Amino acid sequence: MKLSKLLITSASFLLLLFSSSAQAFQCPAHLAAAQSAIDKVAADMKAMHNKLDKQQVALVHAL
């Protein structure tokens, strides 16, 4: 009985370990997508900043 519990616990631990390492390989793709979104928002904000007057820019920065 103790051996079966030990085997089940070990198998569960190994499955969790392998699944987390598989997700780690996807991390650069997620980081690239996030950086792309950040760059797009930064470019949009810069374009909007050029269209607004100083008072409106101050209000945006206050938010």
Key terms:
92% helix; 3 helices
Spell out the blueprint of helices and strands:
Blueprint (H helix, E strand, L loop, with lengths): L1 H24 L1 H25 L2 H9 L1
Descriptive notes:
The chain has 63 residues and is an all-alpha fold. It has one domain (2-62). Helix content is 92%, strand content 0%. The N and C termini lie far apart (62 Å). The mean pLDDT is 78.
By DSSP (H or I, 4+ residues per run), the number of helices equals 3
Largest sheet, in brief, is:
none
Give the termini separation. 62 Å
Sequence of secondary-structure elements: HHH
Question: Care to count the β-strands?
Answer: 0
Strand content: under 5%
Unreliable residue stretches: none
Q: Which structural class do you get from the secondary structure elements?
A: mainly alpha
* Radius of gyration of CA atoms, rounded to a whole number: 24 Å
Shape: rod-shaped
- What helical percentage do the residues reach? over 70%
**Roughly what is the average pLDDT, rounded to an integer?**
78
How many domains? The number is 1
